[in-house]
Amino acid sequence: MIRKGFSYFMYTKVLGWTFNANGNDFGEKGVFMFAPHTSNWDFIIGRFFMGMLRLKPKLLVKSSLFFPPLGWILRALGGIPVDRSKKNNLIDQVVDIFNSRERVYIVFTPEGTRSRTKKWKTGFYYAALKANVPIYLMYAKFDKKEGGVFEVFRPTGNVEADLSYIKSLYYGIKGKHPEKGVFPDEE
């Protein structure tokens, strides 16, 4: 885990970002949904943000990147390899991770990639629903250099209404490379 003081210094003083956790209480487990995801900088900003909160998140990373020495580094940073080339019950794998640990946070990006996509993926929602954990709705406003957590959201099972509400929080937020992102108001 990156130390809180170092994270704060890098996030606020070096990178010039502001921090907004909105007074949220972070329990023992949860899905951190981060949007928009358009750049490798999202990872750096997110790591420092999580370091300030003293949280050690796990990240789902395409398995093709887990070769030495990059794979060792990714694992040290919380990376969990996933094979995105086939249907492999990823949600059940994530639920197993939640069920096997006392304290764990898994970061999802609804775009699933830094490239342009047509719509959000919903794995973050179904993983949280099935594991009965909250979703921490994270954002990064690159134009304002502000990152934070909108709120802690508990999925109700009403998928359409829940996703509509979640997406409404992200209207107008652009990532570092807006041309690469898919935004809720475009779906």
3D structure, described in words:
The longest helix has 12 residues. Strands 1-7-6-2-5-3-4 form a seven-stranded mixed sheet, sandwiched between helices. With 187 residues, it is α/β, with parallel strands linked by helices. Helix content is 33%, strand content 21%. α1 packs across α2 and α4 crosses α5.
Short description:
The protein is of the alpha/beta class. Helices cover 33% and strands 21% of the residues. The chain has helices spanning 4-14, 41-52, 70-76, 90-100, 123-131, 159-169; strands at residues 18-20, 29-35, 58-62, 79-82, 104-108, 135-141, 146-153.
Distance between the first and last residues' Cα = 36 Å
Shape: globular
Assembly status: single chain
Computed structural class: alpha/beta
What is the succession of H and E elements?
Answer: HEEHEHEHEHEEH
**Helix content class:** 25-40%
Mean pLDDT: 85
- What is the number of helical segments per DSSP (H or I, 4+ residues)? 6
Taken as a percent bin, the fraction of beta residues is 15-25%
Give the count of structural domains: 1
Give a short account of the largest sheet: 7 strands, mixed
Task: State the strand order across the main sheet.
Answer: 1-7-6-2-5-3-4
Low-confidence stretches: none
Number of strands: 7
Radius of gyration from the CA trace? 16 Å
Give a topology summary.
Layout (H helix, E strand, L loop, with lengths): L3 H11 L3 E3 L8 E7 L5 H12 L5 E5 L7 H7 L2 E4 L7 H11 L3 E5 L14 H9 L3 E7 L4 E8 L5 H11 L18
Parallel strand pairs: 1-7, 2-5, 2-6, 3-4, 3-5
Antiparallel strand pairs: 6-7
Helix pairs in contact: 1-2, 4-5
